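This part of the workshop introduces the protein records we will be handling. To make this concrete, we reproduce a full record directly below.
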Amino acid sequence: MGSQTVSAVLGVLALGLLNGCGNSGSPTVSAFSVPLDPPDLSLQGVAFARLSEGQVVARGTADRVDYRRAGGRVQASHGGGMVYPLPGSGLAQFGTVRFVAKEIEGEVPNRRGVASGGVRVDTTRGDVAVTERVQCDGDLLHNNVPVAVRGPGYQVDGNGLSARTDGSAIQLTQGVRGQLQMEARR
């Protein structure tokens, strides 16, 4: 069941967080030139769904998606998605997980990617995380830029993040500060 959750997350992240690290730099493009490595497939107004055992476990959208067969490289702009965790999975405690990012790049077969530009994750439980960039390497999400996280009873800021895609471990790093809100006495 955990691998289904990871697969669902990775399916959504294929247009989101798992779409970077393919090209170390963007090709130089001007109004008068063609990209050095044009995509094999380019789509605008993309919507997708990932099914597992007949159920939608993830879905997403992007304004534009470029796909290059060599390396399974994907680039997306203004992408977002939702993951519907399976009951009993590590992510189930959070409820539906929604995310958005302005730019997403990655290598889908290698399960590696980068989301950047206003990356935001919201959960049904009320958790919200905001950062400018996050990388995904297999089952690990990480970054070394400021991260602001808040949710039911807490608000925490850090200068880095390390987390597992199945929700089993989430750790803010480098200068963590925040507040825990105690329940009011009755």
